[in-house]
Amino acid sequence: MLLISSAPMAAEESCANLEKQKYANVTITSAAFMNDPPGFLAPTTPGMFGTPAGLKVTKPFCRVTGFIEPVKGSHIGFEVWMPPEATWNSRYLAVGNPAFEGAIKYGGLKQSLEQGYATASTDTGHQDPGHQWGMGNEVALVDWTHRAVHETTVVAKHLIKAFYGQGPRYSYWDSCHNGGRQGLAAAQRYPEDFDGIVAGDPAYYLTHLQAGSEYLSWIALKDGTKAPGFVPPAKYPALHRAVLDACDTLDGVKDEAIEDPSRCKFDPASIQCQGPDALSCLTEAQVSTVRSLYAGAKFADGTQIYSGFEPGSELQWSAMISGPDPLFINNDFFKYIAFEDPNWDFRTFDVDRDTRRIDARLGPVINSTNPDLKAFKANGGKLLMYQSWNETWVLPRMITTYYGSVVSTMGGEGQTKDFARLFVVPGNGMCPGNPATFDALGAVQKWREQGIAPDQIKMSYSEGKRVYKTRPVCPYPQVARYKGTGDTNDAANFTCGLPTW
């Protein structure tokens, strides 16, 4: 632990005294003010999304560590970081967790702290970078699904009040993928935890998402990468080019992106090989594979389980279906959590049978599909969801289905858009920065604190440090429509409205 050197005595003592705080089922293991000039060197954590060595925090802060044991068998680790009162923005911003791994997210804590927030992170109840922790452990699954974030938020608010003498004026959530799912779970189950929630590319319907994703891998890889129907990654660019040629200009603008892929009626047979197999075309067997990848997983009666890849996402397919094995995030879910069999072979997967099996056993535990957000709305909460159209890990179209169910449950669009809106981002792969960047948190804060609803969010598309396009992204089901004059790479020349094509 860092030595305390020049921290103001009041902040130093107030932070150290937090170690004496007593809360039910909570153990505080340390509380110290970090103010040593070399900075705080964050611990490294394992996993695909772990904290790398060398992450340093140079701004002073009060660091509190501990764990929570709300039920037998539960052990939820947490850290709460609080800047000095003079630099605190009077808000709390929680940090989300990627995928199924368990670890404190030090990068998120650092970013939130440097923006002036009091912040907290949880390990979600386990310290495992994989999926083995969930095998036969429903307590850990409930912790990971929703309980850890809630319990950490409750403790964080207590500690903030004890440190500053007042609680946060506003509390926020802003995260993506599994973090987006965590945000929706909070709105559905704990409507008083957050005043504003940004839920990005949310993996909310987990049983169907995992089944739908495993199905795509099964379609592409079940017969191996030498099979006639396997589509090698070297063919993705030609397929992508053909999709853009067919659908890019449907919205009246040629910009190497599809504004609304759900309106693209591309048929991969249009580039079926008429002669020798080449990288510029698809064989008949490959055409069949691509059609299945676009169609997505369905039950035997034709009911959609989860949407497939969207037209325009082809350059993002590699992690999911390039082989020889499926993406481990999906495959290991079935091995360790769904079927509790480390030797399970994805080639035995049956999408109808296995989706029904995991729905029955795991759906009530891990899904966050409840569209009834009346309590969250009544508490003044604002929910901003966004989804990337080119996303392949959390497939896009199901969040539009969820939003539709919220609209229906809440009594119509007029009763929904005053507290919940969905923005679907064309040409973005996943989460901010791939390649679109945007300030969703700023939008939800303005909405909650000033009553100014986001009628559009400006997206900046970048390559390296160069911004090559800006574009408004509109509340679903609206889209960005070109005014007819001016630079098509400038957001100022677009308005929001329902699609006309």
Structural class estimated from helices and strands: alpha/beta
Rg measurement, Å: 24 Å
Proportion of residues in helical segments? 25-40%
Number of strands: 18
Q: Quaternary status of these chains?
A: single chain
- Separation of termini? 61 Å
Secondary structure tally, helices: 13
Q: What strand order characterises the main sheet?
A: 1-4-5-7-6-8-9-12-13
Shape: globular
Determine the strand fraction and express it as a percent band.
15-25%
Mean pLDDT: 95
Low-confidence stretches: 1-7
What kind of sheet is the major sheet? 9 strands, mixed
Walk me through this protein's architecture:
With about 500 residues, the protein is an alpha/beta fold. Among the domains are: about 1-170, no CATH class; about 210-365, no CATH class. It has helices spanning about 10-15, 105-115, 140-165, 180-190, 205-220, 235-245, 285-295, 320, 330-340, 350-365, 375-380, 395-410, 440-450, and strands at about 25-35, 40, 55, 60-70, 75-80, 90-95, 120, 170-175, 195-200, 295-300, 305, 380-390, 420-425, 435, 455-465, 465-475, 480, 495. α3 packs across α4, α5 crosses α9 and α5 runs antiparallel to α10. The longest helix is centred in the N-terminal third of the chain and has 27 residues, at about 140-165. About 50% of the residues are buried.
